[in-house]
Write a structure and sequence with these properties.
885 residues, 26 helices, 35% helix, globular
């Protein structure tokens, strides 16, 4: 009888399968038993050919070569994966291997990893699929007893291939076309664009432009202090006739935008007696549903300030390494109808021991609530909600993993608890025709809130107007004092990762209705498994930075989206239209749309992007519309251009004779929006404005002022806020990379942003008191805008230096190559290749030789600058000598 070759996505999963099935012997890169050979990939070990692999002429980024539309998508080995591919290929080609078992992650990307390996090896054999919901031993054994035919997942594989190929077509072509058109002396790095990353960037940019263009508008509120029945309370003035207007969100029922009106109300009501009425009623708050990945990431961002990637990494470790949670990369918030017995098992385990004994015991005693919502086959996709497996954590669980497990376990228990019951009071006091409202909310029955351990903010209780009555009206209330409060409208808040995940999930729409949001999930941007990568990729590309929980676009990011709108590549910057493509991918998976139909549309879309990027004219992008104001130097009208705002150009004027006035769009990390420029040109100053940042990332507010045609910035004292961070986070492989090269006796491990000595990491987590002399070894996972791969880091750790690495980017935007080496202080240094001297190029000052041997002189302007610089030095030395004398 032949054997089955099992291929997993990660080595740790292969080891778990071997341990669960038993009877294996370990070999070089695989395990073998009587029935199976088990080996592993390490994520994607093959990749699509790059354009230069297809044709060497594509090495140069030339517009005439675009669009690049290969007839077929071929694969190649990823750098450093030759040994892994050799082992897998050898096993697949063995005569005694009769079938292949796909044990990669149970999702679209896992399907793609497996299918690409099989395609690359080129030895098709019958396939079956292992589809696991958890990584416990029982689950693995049960999965092998119920393996499914690989053909059942052909639709998923087709959708995965379409996703990969469409991202290649749009990403490669759009990035090359936009880079050729947008690169300049100020920004020499690539202008990366993508099917999913660019519409996500547009969501962040649209909000930032709202913030920057906001003009504070003064308004007034009135707060009054009343006495009724021997009790005092406060009330806020409001307009009972107010109706909200969608295009004017700053208008609200308790805001008065006419100061004279506010001033007139105060004497009209002061010292008068009014009539109060109130209603008191209980309000039931149902427990939140179980977590899917996106809702878990949102909650971790709100409560713990974690990034989406950090949450996913912790959840994946709790699933794979600790076996504590079910599969995390899910879009479902419900469980199958037949999973009730498993939930009872988890509750039994929790009630026996551990931190949730009392909560689980209460559910076992009194029964589960909300079961119709929790158990619903119609809301279960390929995977169900994230819940505990029933295993209890051991002492090894700590840090992020422990906090993540606690978050999921409490949500799991709370989902079956009774509602929280609030006592809500609304009181309206009318005085001389003016209405004042008082509200309070107090928690009568904590219900599910007691499980979450959240301290919900309660209002100060309002004593009843009439003791013993739920509702009351016509009660006399004496107004003791009224205060007029001056306020200003504020810009909308920046998008947090939690909010961005919701917008991505709902195709860019602001939706609070749970059922409506569920209906839009199929048209969301990306998938739950990829959204964290999309956010990190935007940060790595220099389009977005983090400020605490919030995300802020860079000037480069805003400019990219602005240009896309101006050249009418709207689809590439539209969340809604990109959501439609995601919906079509789901139709490919379900067999409702063929892969060829989808890819034909993508090819048409790609041609459209390239044609528009090739053909636009900058004069058409920034036409002379209404001027922003007058130039303070030459009084000509000022208009917007691609990189700056400047006065109207005069034809046939030499550059040196033209007006030099410019307001650059990038001012200390802040984008100079239209309203700010108008204010500067009209009043000569603007501010205080927020959004500026120092080089070390600290943010601050500043005043801007035009003086003699120069824009000057003055930081406002005491306004420094959180630091911006442009460091992306990466997935964490828990295997050590090797012994620490500083010979401290520890080993090097991965964190989301660094490779560091375990001793250093533990010291940082516990504080310096634990280790007063922590190891100094650390290597960032992003060096000069380039990711350092694990293979490169392993060589760096083992040999204290890497091979020559390419694709670093200097702070001036120039690409360079270098060897990284470990310095004595544990940090990294750069070692550059020696420059090769050009033949026949004499190293003389004042000129260089052309191939024909003629000497070329410098330009006159260069000579003038050098002479002026020399004169300044002589003058400075003479002045210093005079002073000394």
């Amino acid at each position: 009888m032949g054997k089955s070759c099992v291929i997993t996505e990660k080595p740790s999963v292969a080891r778990d399968i071997v341990a669960a099935l038993g009877g294996f012997q370990e070999h070089d890169g695989y395990w073998e038993s009587d029935d199976y050979v088990v080996t592993f990939s390490v994520g994607h070990i093959v990749e699509l050919l790059s354009p230069e692999d297809i044709d060497p002429t594509y090495k140069r980024w030339i517009l005439d070569n675009l669009p690049i539309l290969p007839d077929e998508f071929k694969l190649k080995k990823k750098s450093g994966q030759s040994d892994r591919i050799r082992v897998i290929k050898k096993l697949i080609e063995r005569e005694d291997v009769e079938e292949l078992i796909n044990a990669c992650d149970a999702g679209r990307e896992g399907e793609l990893i497996f299918r690409e390996i099989v395609e690359f090896v080129g030895k098709p054999k019958p396939m079956r699929r292992l589809w696991l919901q958890s990584m416990t031993t029982d689950s693995i054994r049960g999965g092998f007893r119920s393996l499914e035919p690989g053909s059942d997942f052909d639709g998923l594989a087709a959708a995965a291939a379409c996703r990969s190929h469409s991202d290649w077509l749009i990403g490669m072509n759009a990035t090359r076309a936009l880079t050729r058109r947008l690169q300049s002396r100020r920004e020499k790095t690539a202008w990366s664009a993508g099917r999913v990353q660019t519409p996500t960037l547009a969501l962040i940019c649209d909000r930032e432009l709202e913030i920057l263009s906001h003009l504070p508008r003064p308004y007034w509120r009135l707060e009054a202090r009343f006495e009724a029945g021997g009790n005092e309370y406060t009330g806020a003035w409001f307009d009972p006739e107010f109706r909200a207007q969608e295009n004017q969100p700053e208008l609200r029922e308790d805001r008065i935008f006419d100061e004279s009106r506010a001033r007139a109300i105060v004497p009209a009501v002061e010292g008068r007696t009014g009539q109060a009425r109130e209603t008191r009623k209980p309000s039931r708050e149902t427990s939140p549903p179980l977590f899917d990945l996106t809702s878990l990431q949102r909650e971790a961002n709100r409560r713990l300030s974690w990034s989406a990637r950090r949450t996913l990494n912790a959840a994946q470790r709790c699933y794979e390494a600790h076996k504590l949670l079910t599969y995390p990369r899910t879009s479902s918030r419900a469980l199958p109808n037949d999973y009730r017995a498993k939930v009872d098992e988890v509750l039994t385990s929790f009630a026996a021991a551990g931190p949730f004994r009392s909560e689980a015991a209460r559910l076992r005693e009194k029964g589960l609530e909300n079961t119709a919502r929790a158990f619903d086959d119609s809301k279960v996709t390929d995977h169900f909600a994230i819940i505990p497996t029933g295993r209890l954590p051991d002492r090894a669980l700590s840090g992020d993993d422990a906090r993540l497990f606690d978050l999921v376990s409490r949500r799991f228990l709370a989902a079956f608890y009774p509602p929280a019951v609030w006592n809500r009071v609304e009181r309206v006091t009318e005085v001389e025709g003016h209405s004042f409202r008082s509200r309070s909310r107090t928690l009568d029955q904590p219900g599910w809130r007691a499980v979450l351990g959240q301290e919900e903010q309660e209002d100060q209780a309002l004593p009843p107007l009439v003791p013993g009555q739920t509702d009351a009206a016509g009660v006399a209330a004496q107004l003791r004092e009224v205060e007029q409060i001056d306020e200003q409208t504020r810009p909308p808040a920046r998008i947090t990762e939690a909010r961005l995940l919701s917008l991505m999930e709902n195709a860019g729409k602001e939706i609070d209705d749970e059922d409506l949001a569920q209906a839009l999930h199929e048209k969301g941007i990306g998938t739950p498994a990829t959204r964290a990568d999309i956010i990190e990729n935007l940060i790595a590309k220099g389009y977005v930075v983090r400020i605490g929980k919030a995300l802020r676009p860079t000037v480069k990011g805003i400019r990219l989206v602005d240009v896309l709108h101006r050249i009418h590549i709207d689809r590439l910057a539209s969340a809604a239209l990109t959501g439609e493509l995601e919906f079509q991918l789901s139709q490919v998976e379900e067999g409702k749309l063929s892969a060829d139909e989808f890819m034909n549309e993508i090819r048409t879309y790609t041609v459209e992007i390239v044609d528009r990027a090739k053909s636009f004219d900058y004069d058409d992008l920034y036409p002379d519309g209404e001027p922003f104001g007058q130039c303070p130097q030459c009084q000509r009208p000022v208009f917007e251009r691609s990189w700056f705002y400047r006065c109207k150009e005069v034809p046939d004027v030499e550059k040196d004779d033209d007006c030099t006035f410019r307001i650059w769009k990038d001012k200390s990390g802040r984008y100079m929006d239209h309203n700010t420029v108008r204010m500067l040109l009209k009043e000569g100053r603007a501010g205080p404005l927020d959004g500026f940042s120092y080089r070390d990332g600290r943010t601050y507010s500043a005043m801007l002022q035009l003086e003699d045609g120069e824009l000057r910035l003055e930081a406002v004292a005491g306004t420094e806020g959180e630091r911006t961070s442009d460091t992306p986070e990466y997935e964490v492989d828990d295997r050590p990379l090797g012994s620490c090269p500083m010979d401290c006796g520890s080993e090097v491990i991965e964190t989301p942003i660094e490779f560091m000595c375990r001793r250093r990491a533990e010291s940082s987590a516990a504080g310096t008191k634990k280790d007063p002399h922590p190891c100094s070894f650390v290597l960032p996972r992003t060096v000069c805008r380039r990711e350092i791969t694990r293979d490169e880091a392993e060589r760096y750790v083992g040999q204290k230096k890497t091979e020559m690495l390419v694709d670093f980017t200097s702070r001036h935007g120039r690409p360079f190559s270098a060897i990284l080496f470990v310095k004595d202080n544990g940090r990294h240094g750069f070692e550059f290749a020696p420059r090769a001297e050009r033949k026949g190029a004499p190293r003389k000052k004042g000129g260089r030789k052309k191939p024909g041997g003629k000497k070329t002189t410098r330009k006159k302007t260069v000579r003038k600058k050098a002479a002026a610089k020399s004169a300044r030095k002589k003058s400075s030395r003479a002045g210093a000598a005079t002073k000394k004398a």
